[in-house]
Amino acid sequence: MIVEGVEGPVLTPGQDGFEEERTGFNLAVRHRPDVVVGATTPADVAAAVRHAAARGWAVAVQGTGHGASVPLDGGLLVSTRRMAEVGVEPSTRTARVDAGARSGQVVEAAAVHGLAPLNGSAPHVGVVGYTLGGGLPLLGRSHGWAADRVRALEVVTADGRQHRVGPDDELFGGLLGGRDNVGIVTAMEFELVPITELYGGGLFFDAERVPGLLEGYVAWAADLPRSMNTSLALVPFPDDPVLPEPMRGRRVYHVRIACTAGPGVGELLVQPLRELGPRLLDTLAVLPYRESASIHDDPPVPMPWAADNAMLTGLDSRAIATLLAHVRDEASVPTIVELRRLGGALADAGPHASLVGHRSAAYMLAVLTPLEGPDTQQAHRVLGRLFEDLTPWTTGRFLNFMGHGPHADHARTRTAYEPADLERLARLKALHDSANTFRANTNVLPVADPAPEETA
Which of 40, 165, 248, 315 is deepest in the core (most CB within 10 A)? Predict the structure, then answer.
């Protein structure tokens, strides 16, 4: 098939490279497009969108393959992974990245100049998708949301036109937190922070030997300075010889630490955690920032999974008991539970009118269920029951950690926004994409004047 104006590869089902191009990081979400355009320039993206719009096709975008939620069924998939250039300007402490650039690339490029981006925990995740979803950084309590550091965006709207927008443009704010609802971002410019090292690593506890670890962690995390960034994961490790011996076959609490105040302050702050019980491993040390990915050590291998999340107002004893009861009762469906401490700079008002919501939340809870073994429907039911029972403590959801299927429908997507922001995004959608061309995503419907029930 010929897509006029496209210089990159154009692929259809059955052609070499088609399967690779349509496959994302979550193997449970597979796009099924009629055409894939492997964009090499913003002009390719614009031409692809015009081609699809002229035929009434839906359009989806995929960069590094992370963040997929609603699979495209027919239509056109724009793959931006070939657009991966990264540039750093040390005099202004800024970076410019193309749509397919990964976080690890920016970390390396910035480190040369004693700078760092507000990246997340995994270096293989795409910068643009991560930031447009809000961007919850490894150092978020110290420096705030990644979306708040963006200075300019280059975007293709549903009419196939290219734009460059900044904070004075309403479209700019609608993209930051709105992801790809109102356009495909082809490049982004954002601020960097002056940091070269941190005190960080992990504390690992056997969940059976330290049964009160979660309660102790929540008590410890209640009153932390902004310099302390932390999260906790409860992970069922298989009995696999490739794993460190202390972890094999155990359910392990992994407490992650990233402290910007130096090792002296860091050691004092984590001492109460070390007193909670015996540790399987303790890897806390001074790290060059370019090694910060080792703190979470997120696996880079694609796999199928179901997931959901909640932004929590807090965690009292009843909420903790509810969470732990579900984890124990659903042993037949393995789940990875992650609790990220929010607050600090994440609670500050943003410098521009982005759509990043629920800034007052105290925690973000994310639960992931691998789908390689358990029944898919059962996995979704397990997640549904857990988050339904946590409703009394839930203020909404975080876009970047939403799953797929029932966990990314219209009703669930609306909970990621404050009511006024949801209205604003719906109006922007009506203005820039009234046909809902960009709908294979965490989708907000285009409504010029949303009815009250649509913003509830």
Answer: 315
Q: Is 108 helix (H, G, I), strand (E, B) or coil?
A: helix
Which helix (H) or strand (E) covers residue 389, if one does? helix 376-389
Report the Cα 144 to chain-centroid distance in Å: 15
CB 305 within 8 A of CB 383: no
Contact 257, 286 (CB under 8 A): no
**Which residues make beta-bridge pairs with 77?**
36, 60
pTM for this predicted structure: 0.95
**Are the C-beta atoms of residues 365 and 136 closer than 8 Å to each other?**
no
Output the six-digit token pair for 252: 């392990």
Q: Which residues does the chain have with pLDDT short of 50? A: 452-456
Contacts 24+ apart (CB under 8 A), 392-395: 392/319, 393/310, 393/312, 393/313, 393/314, 393/315, 393/316, 393/319, 394/310, 394/311, 394/312, 394/313, 395/311, 395/312, 395/313, 395/358, 395/360, 395/361
What pLDDT is attached to residue 405?
Answer: 83
- Round to whole Å and give the CA distance between 49 and 37: 10
| R_g of the chain computed on alpha carbons | 22
Distance of CA 335 to the CA centre of its chain: 18
